[in-house]
Amino acid sequence: MISVENALQLVLKATQDFGVEKIPFIKSVGRILKEEIVADRDFPPFNRVAMDGIAIDYYEFSSRLRSNRQLSFKIEGIQAAGSEQITLKNNQNCIEVMTGAVLPNNANTVIRYEDVIIENGVATINIDKINEDQNVHHKGKDGKVGDVLIAENMKISAAEVGVLATVGKSFVKVAKQPKIMIISTGDELVGVDEIPLEHQIRRSNVFTLVSLLERLNISSETAHITDDKPILKSKIKNYLQDYDVLLFSGAVSKGKFDFLPEVFDELGVEKLFHKVAQRPGKPFWFGQTENCKLFAFPGNPISTFVNCLAYFYPWYYKSVNLKVEQETAILAENVTFKPDLVYFLQVKLSCKNGNLIATPIQGNGSGDLASLVHADAFIQLPSHKSEFKSGEVYPIIRFK
Amino acid sequence: MISVENALQLVLKATQDFGVEKIPFIKSVGRILKEEIVADRDFPPFNRVAMDGIAIDYYEFSSRLRSNRQLSFKIEGIQAAGSEQITLKNNQNCIEVMTGAVLPNNANTVIRYEDVIIENGVATINIDKINEDQNVHHKGKDGKVGDVLIAENMKISAAEVGVLATVGKSFVKVAKQPKIMIISTGDELVGVDEIPLEHQIRRSNVFTLVSLLERLNISSETAHITDDKPILKSKIKNYLQDYDVLLFSGAVSKGKFDFLPEVFDELGVEKLFHKVAQRPGKPFWFGQTENCKLFAFPGNPISTFVNCLAYFYPWYYKSVNLKVEQETAILAENVTFKPDLVYFLQVKLSCKNGNLIATPIQGNGSGDLASLVHADAFIQLPSHKSEFKSGEVYPIIRFK
């Protein structure tokens, strides 16, 4: 049995680069960017009008102000958004300008309509505190052509999609996702559509795993194999050829029909570890072949769930080179946990005065999937300690 | 101009129930549940073995312990997971049992293999501290048939998917999503695939909106209309018939070509408000017809972005009856903001010692979409106040 820290280290040593693919930018949310996004032009690309109003020459304005002359400017024309730049021909005049338009040539300052009265083609400014360049968003202010707007390895969200559109990246390079098969074992399991007999239950772990992978934008396939060693062996042999990752649920503990560790061994899979000093999820088995990683999770619903979050997620993040900040939360109640194991305890998170509070959810052990409905994270309580006090801070792993 | 609070109240008064649809449970992640999920049988459905080992009669064990007799039990048989319940015929004996199996009849306690030595068909227990019922997950302990396992109006995540599978809900009732059209205006806009002329820029707001709706599992359509009043009017007239919600970006401010408010009026749309005391996003226009809600956001990228989060999101949550907790964070730096407006400031969140810290991201105003790449939330700083101190706590809206 190894520690959670060592297990995680071994998992993170077995990460793998799955390469890069180009996809339409509008389908890229949640994917990991695999190129630098640079500005194809200045940002904004021209001196951009930032308010609807009139554009004037500031020097003319301030000279009239100093000499107490009238602040009225004849309107020479209109500069609409999307029109070519026009020129203020006479600096005694002004041009009506619209938000998003190019600032007219020879003008440098925009007065918004709210501060102007327009009558008979003449705009009279009714304020006297004006700054040169006001309401002008200058060419290149947010970025220069060639500037890196999005660094490589960022996770793409709505904000990045906007930038991709702006620079014309209709296709974008992202990390390819691993090809994953999720396999359940256990002869007590029947399909979701079936009516189980007294001693049977329906399959559920493969579907929670499918959903947990979907959170990472990974699509996956599922299969069920009966607890029959030759059948397990021949099917897994094929899956090892066809997939980058196999996730198993069940058949890794001490039971008479827990054939997986033997089968892996006979198929030449390198075992990296079996059993981790944690609860739930202790009998976790992890290994690899040259082209495939095998995460074999214990079959109890919460064991499978927490191990996917605690090991597969960080393995995926490192494989695609995504940095993820470790979150922490404040324990809301005293917790006693005697065994010398890391304890992954389901908690409900709430946010009070900028504090993240973790309230333990009472569950009935690793079989109690229904209790996860009321939780939204696991808090990770360390080993070598059995009393955890309200107010202490520990790492959390969110799943909602 | 109305306050942010009043604007939000008016938006929340205009929510709408879009009905219910049945979808495959495995496609239901992120959707809002519209039925109670009840246990179709006890949870677990039988006295379930929770450890691989042997099952015995506890009273026989304790009577031997008291009288100092040998703790050896002849193995009568094996109870595998997925097999019908067998019976311990002689309480002097034991049955090997596997995790997930039914506890054999006449047995009540499971000793794990780690605490047993098996030789020649006899299991000898090598510990003397055993509790009655240990390692047995009792029928109905996590829930009774008919118990509500998931309440209506919960957002479905991986945990709920597992429960849906367990109770055989292969199809599940969820809130129907509104049918949404996203419309951009502005003659300065060209397509993402095009090379803009000097005075043009590429469309980006519609794509950020598409992505922000995807976060709510809402798919949407997009269209662009030129700044031509008759064309705007005829197209919007059709959209009002065909969609539940129209989201607009641009053409709601004071510009000469900001035709939307007039067009809405001429089409008989009821205006609920125009202009909110906030920055960015002040010229926001909101209205409705009998069957359609219109969110007309100002065209600056950050204005569109923040208004979608601050108004459309809560409107959606209330429409589908989802309760969402208001998050707060601690300001990491002093901020000065003079105008008497609510200030939505982009921030980077980090988690230190269970505290959620919001560090302001320097942006160049509402046009600076690129600055959102470095942020992951907006912090909402109230009006009637201009100095916001490091350490103060304010509401946040996350978008990553």
TrEMBL record, chains A, B:
Its EC number is 2.10.1.1. GO terms for biological process: Mo-molybdopterin cofactor biosynthetic process. Its cofactor is Mg(2+). It catalyses: adenylyl-molybdopterin + molybdate = Mo-molybdopterin + AMP + H(+). The keyword Lipoprotein does not apply. Residues 181-318 form the MoaB/Mog domain. PANTHER family: GEPHYRIN, MOLYBDOPTERIN BIOSYNTHESIS PROTEIN. This is Molybdopterin molybdenumtransferase. It comes from Polaribacter vadi.
